[in-house]
Automatic annotation (TrEMBL):
Compositional bias segments (type: Gly residues): 41-56
Name of this protein: PQQ-binding-like beta-propeller repeat protein
Organism name: Agromyces seonyuensis
Matching Pfam families: PQQ
Residue ranges annotated for the Pyrrolo-quinoline quinone repeat domain, each copy included: 78-650
Family statement drawn from the similarity comment of this UniProt entry: Belongs to the bacterial PQQ dehydrogenase family.
Record InterPro entries: Cupredoxin, PQQ_b-propeller_rpt, PQQ_rpt_dom, Quinoprotein_ADH-like_sf
Amino acid sequence: MQRQRRMPGGRPRRLMTRLGLAGAVGLLAAGLVATPALGVGGPNHGGGPGHGGGHGPKPDPVPSAELTGLEPTGADMPTVGGNLGNQHYSGLTQITKRNLDRLAPEWETHVSAVAPASDDTGQQTTPIVVDGVIYVDTPSGGVIAVDGKTGAAVWKWEPTEFAASGTRRGVAAGEGKIFTLADGDRVVALDQATGQQAWVVQPTGPNGEFLGNFDRVATVYWDGIVYAHAANGDRAAVVALDASDGSYLWHFFGGPQRGVVYTDVNGNSVDAGGTWGELLPDGTDCALVGGSTPWMHGAVDPELGMYYMTFGNARSCTSSQNGSLRPGDNLFSSTLVAVDMTTGDYKWHYQSIRHDVWDMDNVHPPTLADIRVPVAADGNGKGKGKPKTEERKVLFYGSKSGHQFVLDRTNGTPVLPVVDKPMITDSRQAHAETQPFPVNRLLPECIVYEPLDPENIPGDPWRAVPNYNGYQPDAEGNLVFNPESYVKADEPFLTYPEGSSGHREGCMYDPQFDLPILSTTSQNGGADWSNNAYSHETNLVYYPYGTNPVAHYNGAASNGLRAIGQYQTGGILAYDASTGEVAWQNHLGTDMSHGQGPLVTATDLLFVGQIDGRVLAMDASDGDVLWDFQTGSGIAGAPITYEIDGEQYVAVIAAGSTNPYGGSITAGDSLWAFKLGGDYRTASGSQEGPDTSPLTIRRPVSGAAVDGAGVANTVLLARTSRTADTAAARDSVATNAMQPTHLRVPVGTTVTFTNPGAETFPNFPNAKEHCATQFFEGEFAFRLQPGESATHTFDRAGEYFFNDCTDPRPTGKIEVVLTPTDVPGALTFSRSSLDLMARSGLFTGVRGTATAEFAIPAGHRYESGAVLVTPLGRTPVEAESVKTRGGKLFVEFDKADLDQNVPTGSTQLTLRANFLVGGEQVQLTSTATVTVVK
């Protein structure tokens, strides 16, 4: 059963493609701090293992609830990765494709509302389950324990002697404790049964070394050790602590000390600190201030005795985008490192990007598996004929890059073929001449240049914003390379490998220096920090991704400029673990790379959340969406599944986050649990939450909207101020160098675009040609010399982005709006009672359509945009179908879309639609009252 939905903005939500089968102690201890957690509930909620929740003995057989290496999880899901190998795979089988239509919410807990209550919303965490109790970070950065059967809180911890670490991505459990992080670089252990603080430490190295800023990263526990990762700092480490008291055991830095030689299990040796170039004249060692932070949790292999951790990009001497002062590979940046899990002794490493100047670090949690692969598929890709297969212990590594390395986790050598590809280099950047690429790539390697055309909206998910990389529109709107554009200034420094086109096409690792070069996948693309999942049933790896091409250049904020005006979307794909080939891809239409990790079950169901609030159940074999549920707030963590009293549950925390949609995301604090036949209902009478606010899918311009009448409906090109007549102000290349950047005008307005000359700025007029290139519709493409102007009349509502061909960073937007006219009495419904009852009693059983009838005024012709504004939904409900007959507009709405957005009883609903009157676009509304029955 699939309920059809659309992505925000009314565009088709699914774009499905199917392809062929893919030491010493040194710490500051705060001691046993006596701050208690708040115990919640009566005798049925004593907390901790065996908490007396009335669950009774677990039925037999139930898969193991213990911490496991690579085995499926069962009744519990005791780590943020599911098992220690981060497979996010459950062996539970009660919920299947056959009975999925009976899956419904059993309870919802607003975790911030539990005392000590707060109004905090937003969190990026994934829950864990131990002995039927869910442990999860609260939006404020505290921890709450919740009965997995009833949703009742067992205890809640919020620190009082120090602040919480606001952003969190998960806790760990072991030895009767829950391990978390807090402000001031603290690692905290809580009593699992009561939530009271057991110990608090601020780890340092054996000689008092600062180990980095411990915040946000999920903790990992195994065999008496807590692994904590520093997410930020000039130099950051993974630290191992004794779980009994928090005492220091060992640490490993991503920025290595110069002169220390690392010899791996294959006999290869390297002075990793020496790969950062010579000391700078002032004595700075770039490796020691280089970032290389391990900002996501690692994986444990109990059988091999190894801990696997990923380190982020170099960002020192001078920045993440400028590598000129740190020549060399810059180990261990953008590198996966394996160490002895008990001693921290180095075992091996694999660097995914040499000398990273793009913030393309592959730092998602590594995933482990034992798989069978063709014998011929060694690191060299040799072999002929039908290959035999052998079992290999592998690790899947790679996120932002849009590909994955399948490595032998015993020694770090590639199991599936990897090639060293020659790269375009810039002599100013000390680029590596080659980079490693898996032979089978998951996502496109280059951006796509599509014609500017109103019929091609939004177009290819990886389409380029015009003017970047010198690709400018011709008379027909085709983006073609102009060798005389701004990129020409880089040519004396570039070296192209044999077979290159002779210019940069926006492909991964294209070089940049002072000028912006747009490429994919980007620091916000690929899988970024979302986890993967691996299924023992399908042998597929499930890879969520985002599409967000970025322009890199020295001084770029946030490690690169996500091109303003581009569509920020994403989806999920699956690839064959044994071959690396993509099996299927479902482009869901929202970014899936910022915590929206999947969970896969033994019944070939794939559960995943979206930032628009939806939880999806997909067919793990082909990617079809079989079930979806609206929680009412964005999801930025992975779902979990567990079993109590013989019943399987699926749970997810819907709290929201900000990346990449900023304040448009609906944040929340809801922990939801689902089971077959779940009977929870919200205040509206529906089982679902109301639709979330519309997402700002397109990368927004800076600045608030400016009324057009206040600036004579005029935009000044390449200026950040309408009054500053200074040398620094002329010919600006700042992103807000369209003045104003955001102009709001009514439909029918003529806007003037001016390249200001001496008439406007007599002392320092612009000296260069500038453009206003509208995208992606291609409404206009003005090239203006200083002093020249051009006009365009906007006859349709919408948002119209434009940028400059002289330098593509300055970007503006014209927001064209309609003022709605109310037509009292025009709206009726075919039935006065809106029956949203479900025969099954579950939200999945709401069927049928509701028909709204709108009397069209004389002289009006329906054009577009028919929606229903509801009392509860933050986004209007889009029509299923619109027909005109006999002077009336008949608009059908799916009852399943209306259900969660309207309350029971007398309810007002407003129809809104766009019409044409003599070619002029107008908007009409009308409101009617109906009685809603559920």
